[in-house]
Fold this sequence. Notes:
By secondary structure, the chain is of the alpha/beta class. It has helices spanning about 10, 25-35, 50-65, 75-90, 115-120, 130-135, 140-150, 160-185, 195-200, 200-210, 215-225, 240-255; strands at about 15-20, 40, 100-105, 125-130, 190. The chain has a 5-stranded parallel sheet, sandwiched between helices. It starts with 8 loop residues before the first helix and ends with a helix.
Amino acid sequence: MTAAWQLPAELAASGPRVIGATGGSGTRVLARIARAGGLFTGARLNDYEDAVDFGAYSDRWINTWVSANGSLPDSEHEKMTTDLERVVESHCADRPVDARAWGWKEPRSIYLLPYYDETMPTFRFVHFVRDGRDMAFSENQNQLRKHGSVVLEPDQRRLETPLQSIVVWTRINARAADYGEQVLGDRYLRVRFEDLCSEPATSARRVYDFFGLEGDAEGVATEAVAPPSTLGRWRDEKSETVRGLEEIAGPVLDRFGYR
């Protein structure tokens, strides 16, 4: 089904530019860098600097969308799109006139990637990725808690938390990469957290060029990025657990250059 709602031409010309990831990837620093280049990400942000309105939208629709594999009844699809229209209007009401582009940072947007692309054809997506082995041991397991029921198979829900976490990481990131590479094409950019930490200037310039932003990307990134102490924390975990993670996620870890 093609959504009836269309982005107003003024908004379509400069957005949306969206940053998404599985939870705990470190998207906050990337959003700060993008905002310094003129990206409006909303006036209502939470402590993680996620756009509050889109976070609430994710709460309302991700499980419905994912459990139906994107094939909603027409009536439900219409409700979802009417809701999106309202959220976009509210989000953009505070957009400064001098903003170079608009969008949002709400990591869970990664779950709705095909829907956002279908509904807003000028959608551009930065897929932010962090090593799934690190993510499995993160204290931030909000996505697993909120969406594990529609991502995991029943037997997987009985696994230990790190193993459940990496199943979610594997499935959601692989789906996003497939869709980005096969459908979005030049409207898709994948950035690794580890590359942002090791080469902040280069990574930031890639994002600025992709989103059409301006400014001293290199200087902003060099000042904003500080590799956390948790980088590579999986190496300190039990080897048996790590082997279990790699048995689940091996091909996707390889695909993203982590092995």
